[in-house]
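User: Please predict structures.

Assistant: First:
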Amino acid sequence: MNVTKDKISSVFFQYSIPSVLGMLAISSASIVDGFFIGNYVGDFGLAAINITFPIFSLLFGFALMLAIGSSVTSGKLIGEGDIKSASMIFSKTIICITLFSFITSTILFLNIETILYLFGANENLTKIAIEYLSIMLIFIPFLMIGIVLDYFVRVDNRPNLAFIALLLSAFINVVLDWFMIVYLQKGIFGAALATGISQLALIFILLPHFFSKKATLKFVKPIGNYIQIIKASYNGASEFVNEISVGITTLIFNYVMIKNLGVEGIAAFAVINYLLLIGIMISFGISDSLQPIISKNFGAKENKRIEEFLKFAFITVGLVGFIMIFLIIFTPNSLANVFLEDTNYKTKEIVLNFAMFIWIAFLFNGVNLVISAYLTAIHKPLYSMIIAISRSFVFPVIFIFVLPFLFETQGIFLAIPMAEFITFIIAIVLYKRFSPDKII
């Protein structure tokens, strides 16, 4: 498929559908873990997973920064016809992510208890969290490498292969979660092992592509320094900032929730995060699929086509937001029951109170994600980063401390929707400033 010449609707849906399904496949790992742990381990298990979330945000964010930044740069080079330089970017990126992932995971593994203490976990929570985190850190490097391979497979015109890899990984996780947690009754240890093993599938499925005849990108001998990778990573910095900001925000929310509502508050926040994750990952998949499309059309100076792709994206994320709002408003109890046992009355009550306000976020978060992805694709990483850090860190943190003074506990629940609304205003201003007709 030639993304600079073929029919716009065909290109958009052939990239966005696999991307959305792929993102759902990625997020399904944590959602399925949440389902089995919430129903077979209890709300303390959910709290233990949520307390470790900032660590995975850091690692996942770094992988996304390298993957998105380098693949966008590589896509632009492919659009310009410079295949050799595109392959060099790809090869050096794989080397970087491999070294970073294994070194960082080892350091974290050796300091698990200290980290959990700093995150505010009490003795009981630390014991459960160590059981989960110690296994996950062994396997997380394979997920990080798999994420990078996934992005380069997509920019190499194989979006369906990327989707298949993510789908199979998700399927393996579901099967192993049932086997480990329900059948073998291994609890949170089994959940971590199931997720870890499923992450290996990404590499086994995606890596052979780059040795096939269909591949444009090939592994080549890395020549020269890695300044080019650092520059490319900067273009994906907004995604890193977004992920690490989400991690820090989650850490702060956990402190506030445990102080005001106890461990049940952290468990309830975990459930709300699962609900947010479903809608956000669909919108993220749509916006994410734009990056290889827009980067190539940007290189080919096709501003009218970029405008049409963005129209499709805005309409699609708007529809996703409407569906999520409908589900949260009219079926909150059913959604809470997916992750919680009937005996978790206090946790469920907090979830339902949270749901009364969280739906507002879906009015704005899809548009915020699309504009952020667009700015990354046209090599405006600083402005993309402004949107990312505004919605995931700056405004959530401000509102989590300010709003409770005005609205008490309800102020905690309003922090995320208010953050998305203020970010929406900023995103619209930036989009008007860097619209396709102005940048080309």
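Second:
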Amino acid sequence: MTPTGRPYATGDQGAHILLVDDDPSLLKLLGMRLQSRGFRVTTAESGREALKRLEAARPDLVLSDMRMDEMDGLALFQEIQRRSPGLPVIILTAHGSIPDAVSATRQGVFGFLTKPVDRDELFATIDEALAQTTTANGEGDDAWRSAIITRSPEMERILEQARMVASSDVSVLVTGPSGSGKELLAGAIHKASSRADKPFVAINCGALPEQLLESELFGHSRGAFTGAVSEHRGLFQAADGGTLFLDEIGDMPLPLQVKLLRALQERQIRPLGSTASVPIDVRLISATHRDLGQAMHDGEFREDLFYRLNVVNLKLPPLKDRAEDVPLLAKYLVAQAAARHKPFVKGFSREALNLLASSAWPGNVRQLVNVVEQCVALTSSAMIPEALVAQALVAEENALPTFNDARAGFERSYLVKVLKITEGNVTQAARIAGRNRTDFYKLLARHELEPSSFKPGSAHSEAS
């Protein structure tokens, strides 16, 4: 038992400790002592090596010497905090002093122990750190994040931040490319929050025309507009007590941005056609694949709303940057699809998995889901072959795009065409397009087109 009356961590719990010390003999000795208590131990002889170990696998606790060449224990702790906020760190030193201890604990180091370390004190401190971490993380319950399949250190870091921010009611902006799982992350934050037993309501702000989007968000009274034959409760009211997820917030029209900002500031809404305000209690999570900084510069997104939404920003990486997750996701998805359609399908061949892992995935996880579904639908064998994956990848590349993607593609193609016709003359191009110069420049900036590259004699590679 520990001095606090709790049992020591044992092999049944198998907590993983990263042990860091530049003295190989002490590293070995302390590692053996920890293993004798049932801990899984990974060792590192420097701070740099410890950070590499962290990239490979996140431990439950870090136990580090203070005095080391190049990177001392405090510097290592600061880097750990940046990469893995909340990971407990205990620092050991043969040069213990009050200033060092005060500095370490003020910065968030869990414990500060002096060498030679008393065995009972060491294990009591470890036990307390692990117990507090377990309590803070909901006693190790990962149900909140069960929809997100990953072994990527970057994704684990994002999920750790998501877990920490879930406990507060601050607004969160999730950014990342289309199909990267922004709604899944928003749902996970909701499940980890105190609002988990209340509704999680989602809407795509780019999928509806302005008046319909306003009605969906804020509701309307009977007769508010043509076709409003009855009163309608909006999504703010539907999500009362829970979480409202606004996907593609960057596509919200400016007039609605004003109304949303007012609702967030006043914590109440006024349905269309109504003179009465309704109090609301919602946690807002929004998402976008657009560059809102550029949108603000172009006058397409309100700066005051941006800062209201972007209290915490979680940025999801594209699937190509977490290639280690592709085989894991593919195996999970094929099991799901097989259970629904073809129970005899057991998985992908090794060659097929290799092809999946090496693909670029411009459509991210959403594209991977489609490819797996196609493969399961078309296979006649238990193991899906490489050739079928290649076929599905080609079919996906030629698939009908979403409305937003198709519109963006048409816009860009049209702009390139008028710039070619006018040889880069923006005034003439804007006149042909029926837009004023300011709006036309905004369109060019959105599609990263430079008029000067279309002038005679200028080399460019834009497609017609």
